[in-house]
Structure formats: C-alpha cells, structure tokens
Amino acid sequence: MVSLSSSGPSIARPGADLIAHVGASARPALIQYHQDGSRTELSGRVLVNWAAKTANLLEHHGIDTAGLAVLDLPVHWLTLAASLGISWDFDEIRCFGDGDDAVQDAALIVTTAPERWAEHAGELIVVTSLTGASGSSGAQLPSHAIDFDDEVASQADQHVGIAPDLITGTEGASLRLAAASPASAWAFEGGLILAERGTHLTEDLLAAVHEQWSRRCPVIMVEVTDAAEDTGGAGSETLAPERVEHLREVERLGGSAS
C-alpha cells in the first residue's frame, strides 16, 4: 500500500515534494522506445501537466478524495502521469493485484478493464485509449463511468492542491524492483530500464519510478515487439542483455546501481 502524507512540502528535505520537483525540470522524466523503433521523450513538466489535468478532472466531477483509490492500469506514460495526479489528492493508493481484499472499499477505481468494476460502488474512471472501449468503437462503458481520454485534455494543466510527499519510502526501490523482476527491470546509476509488454502497474514499480524522478533520472520504457527475437530465441518476455547494454550507453545511464 502506498500511503501519502498531504501535510505539504518539507522544507527540511529538498525534493520531498516530488510533484514540484519533477515539474520544475525540463529534463526527460520518461523515455519511450516504441515498437516501430521511434523514441519519445517526456519532460517532467509535461508529466506534471497531465498529472494536474487528472487532479482537476477529479475535482470537476466532485470525487471525494478522502478514501482509497485503486489503480488497475498497465504501465504506460499516460497511466504513470495519471497516477501522479491521483496521488496529488488521494492519501491512500493501492494497485489492483497488490492486496485485492481491500478494493471493495475503494472510493475510486481507475482502470482499463471497466467490465471488472461495472458493479463496484465507487467512482469509476476508464482510460479508454488503452482499451479500445470508447464510444467511437461502439463499445459501451458502464453508465456511471467517466471516460478519462474524452475529458482529461480539456482540464487545466495547473492544480492548486497541496502536493504530498511521494518520496518517503522509495529509497532503494529501483534495486528491489530489479531484483524481484530480473527479466524486466534494470537499475543503473542514471536511470531505470523497464521492458514493457503487458506489464501491470504495481506499488513496487510506482515506488521505483518515484525514486528515479526524485533524483531527476529518467525511466526508460521499451515496448518489446517480439520476445523470441529480442532474447535471441529464448521466448521470454524480456530484453536481450546486448540491447540493455546498448540502451545504457545511448542514454548515458552510467554503471549498475547494484
């Protein structure tokens, strides 16, 4: 469980206000290598703008932020930005799969799988661009669901809420994630590489991302196209060591953080 303190930024600990820390940087916070070989950089400012839009979307719909928010999302730049925006207001966040027994009490569910939550009593936000479940595709969302993609872009890109301390407890999170997922995460002195192939958002992964951003280091997500090809025929959903080493050199990530 990710517990957040919303008592305001700590002047005694530089960078404790992660949202302001990330938003003040024009350096890449997230780098995406797409399946077609293209590369996209997102600065900290861009991510915080989308986080602010997300927080303003909650306010626009009058969503009560006093309870638990559950994130049932894949790893994607948009879901990482949205999770940051939800963290802006909610003081307790859980990722679906990291303690499913508590989700029935959630005040908010943010998901790409609306059918899983159609009967849930909490507020429901669906990230339709990652599901195909939108009005234009003919699929029907639950009647009470909010279509994230349809509404978030029109929200203001600044938010007046007090930013919580998201850095507490993240020290060493990247190394723990790499140790737990050695075939999909690699931690270096200057950033974290993640093999993205149907990866679900977890609290460990969020903590590792927050740790990197607290040090103004990038998170590099690689969309794996063909697992067997990337691993030299091993068939595992990962990246070949040669490709990891190439990315480390190209992105100037330095040596291993272990």
Model description:
The structure is a single chain. Strand 9 (185-188) and strand 10 (191-196) form a beta hairpin. This protein is of the alpha/beta class. Helix content is 29%, strand content 18%. The protein has a 6-stranded mixed beta sheet. A 5-stranded mixed beta sheet has the order 3-2-11-10-9. It is globular and about 50 Å long. The two termini are 25 Å apart.
Structure described in brief:
The protein is an alpha/beta fold. Helix content is 29%, strand content 18%.
Portion in strands: 15-25%
Got a strand count? 11
Average pLDDT reading: 82
Q: What would you report as the Rg, rounded to the nearest angstrom? A: 18 Å
Principal-axis shape: globular
| Spans of at least 5 consecutive residues with low confidence | 1-15, 134-138, 227-236
| Percent of residues in helices | 25-40%
Largest sheet: 6 strands, mixed
Q: Could you say which structural class the secondary elements and strand pairing correspond to?
A: alpha/beta
- In the sheet with the most strands, the strands line up as 1-5-4-6-7-8
- Assembly context of the chains: single chain
Q: How do the SSEs run, as a string of H and E?
A: EHEEHEHEEEEHHEEHEHH
Distance between the termini: 25 Å
Query: If helices are DSSP runs of H or I spanning 4 or more residues, what is the number of helices?
Result: 8
What's the SSE blueprint?
Layout lengths: L1 E2 L14 H6 L4 E6 L5 E5 H17 L7 E5 L4 H13 L2 E4 L12 E4 L11 E4 L19 E2 H4 L21 H8 L4 E4 L2 E6 L6 H12 L4 E5 L3 H4 L10 H10 L8
Parallel strand pairs: 2-11, 4-5, 4-6, 6-7, 7-8, 10-11
Antiparallel strand pairs: 1-5, 2-3, 9-10
Helix pairs in contact: 2-3, 5-6
